[in-house]
Amino acid sequence: MKMPRTLIAASLLLGCALPAFSADKVILTIKGAGCCQGKNEQSFTLKDLAALPQSEIITQTPWTKAKSRYQGVSLAMLLKKLQITSSSVKIRALNDYWAQVPVAEIDKYKAILATHADGKALTIRNKGPVWLMLPLSEHPEINKEQYHSYMVWQVHSVEAG
Ligand SMILES: Nc1nc2c(c(=O)[nH]1)N[C@H]1C(S)=C(S)[C@@H](COP(=O)(O)O)O[C@H]1N2
Ligand SMILES: [Mo]
C-alpha cells in the first residue's frame, strides 16, 4: 500500500513529539568480566528494567526543590542478579562524567537506579533515563559532596571494578 504523503508527514510529526527514547531502546548496560551468565555484559531497555522488582526512595536532592518519589530497581539487587562481586562499580553517564561507587555504600543505603519520579519516566532533560538515587532526606549524614558525586544522572552503564 502506498502511504499518502500527508500521513507520512503526520507520523513524522508525532514521532518528534515522542520522548527521546522509547520503552524498547537500550538505555543501560551492565558490564564486568564473568558477569551476566558469561556474556560479560547485559543491556536493558526501560521495559526490561520496569519488569524487575521495583524499589522506592522518597527524597529531596540538591537539584530538586520538593521531595519526590523515585522508583527503579535496587542496584544491589541487580549486581547480585548479574553475579557482579567487585567491591566498587564505575557508573558512567551519557556525557563524560563517571563515579566510582563502593558497593558497600550501595548496599547500606539501598541505592536505586531511578527510572521514574512521581510516577513519570525520567527524561534526559530531567536527569534520566536513569539516575542513581540515594535516600538523602532519610539519611542527612550522606547529604554531602562525597555522596552527591555518586548520584550520577543520565546513567548509561555500570561496570564492575
Ligand atoms: N551525569 C552527571 N552526573 C553528575 C555530575 C555530572 O557532571 N554529570 N556531577 C556529580 C557531582 S561531582 C556532584 S557533586 C553533583 C554535582 O552537581 P552540581 O553540578 O549540580 O553541583 O552531581 C553529580 N552527578
Ligand atoms: Mo562533586
TrEMBL record:
Question: Tell me, what's a Pfam family for it?
Answer: Oxidored_molyb
Q: Which residues form the Oxidoreductase molybdopterin-binding domain?
A: 22-135
UniProt cross-references to InterPro entries, sorted A to Z: OxRdtase_Mopterin-bd_dom, OxRdtase_Mopterin-bd_sf
What are the record keywords, sorted? Signal
Segments spanning the bilayer are none
Instruction: State the signal peptide span.
Output: 1-22
Protein known as: Molybdopterin-binding oxidoreductase
Species of provenance: Vogesella fluminis
